[in-house]
Specification:
Elements: E1 15-25, E2 32-39, H1 47-64, H2 70-78, H3 90-104, H4 113-128, H5 135-138, H6 143-156, H7 164-183, H8 189-208
Antiparallel strand pairs: 1-2
């Protein structure tokens, strides 16, 4: 199914959400999962199958990018047909774009910068890939915001036992999540990704002194693909 044809990757029909999880079979890998969502016709695609090709695109694009602006990195990635309008691939993309811009702005001080960056990018893929789709509404914690916290955790080497890096990682997620919440729902993975990355750029400058770039104005080119677009109520809506 082409990216802009509809929400369901099989038939294009809208996704419906259930208050309680149901046992479903992924139409692609045929694995059985507990899920809160399917399309109107009952098609279900698991997070791994939904995001696999998109994450490959993200990893390849970020590994080659020389951009210092994470928004520009994400906008280029979003044009790829395997980065869908919504989906868990965004939970990797936000942090990966931030790691890339951070590296290109000399954020990594290690001698072997490329080696450190590659390791960080792979860690972002691993951690971000574990965060489930739909968590923004079902858990009250958007994956785009969590992706910024993962980014911060990686660059500061945070663990559950560290001090200041633990603090910074949680502050990062909190700040991004607060800014997303202020915009209101329903969810939009593009709007949430832009907002979270922008919050991260400002936070990193404030706390770590590394200045990544941001565009003068962020404009979204994906409104026509989003059936729930806020249009003029979204700060990135292209009039």
């Amino acid at each position: 199914m082409a990216r802009n044809t509809g929400a369901c990757l099989v038939c294009g029909k809208p996704i419906v959400y259930y208050e309680s999880a149901r046992k479903m079979e992924c139409v692609m890998c045929h694995g059985e999962f507990e899920s809160h969502a399917s399309c109107e016709d009952g098609h279900y695609v698991c997070d791994e199958c939904h995001a696999r090709r998109g994450i490959e695109v993200i990893m390849e694009g970020c590994s080659k990018s020389e951009e210092k602006d994470p928004i520009a990195i994400m906008q280029k990635l979003m044009e790829d047909p395997y980065i869908y309008m919504h989906g868990p691939e965004h939970h990797v993309m936000v942090g990966a774009a931030l790691l890339t811009a951070y590296k290109n702005c000399n954020g990594f001080k290690d001698c072997e910068v490329q080696e450190v960056f590659t390791k960080a990018l792979n860690e972002m893929k691993s951690r971000g890939g574990e965060y489930p789709g739909g968590a923004c509404g079902l858990w009250g914690c958007c994956g785009a915001a969590v992706s910024t916290g993962i980014f911060m955790s990686i660059i500061t080497k945070a663990t559950p036992l560290t001090g200041n890096s633990w603090k910074l990682s949680n502050q990062m997620t909190s700040r991004a999540l607060g800014e997303l919440a202020d915009l209101g729902g329903p969810r939009c993975c593009k709007r949430d990704s832009f907002t979270a990355a922008k919050a991260a750029v400002e936070f990193v400058k404030e706390k770590l002194g590394v200045e990544m770039e941001l565009p003068g104005k962020i404009e979204c080119g994906f409104s026509a693909e989003n059936q729930q677009c806020l249009k003029k109520h979204c700060p990135y809506y292209k009039m």
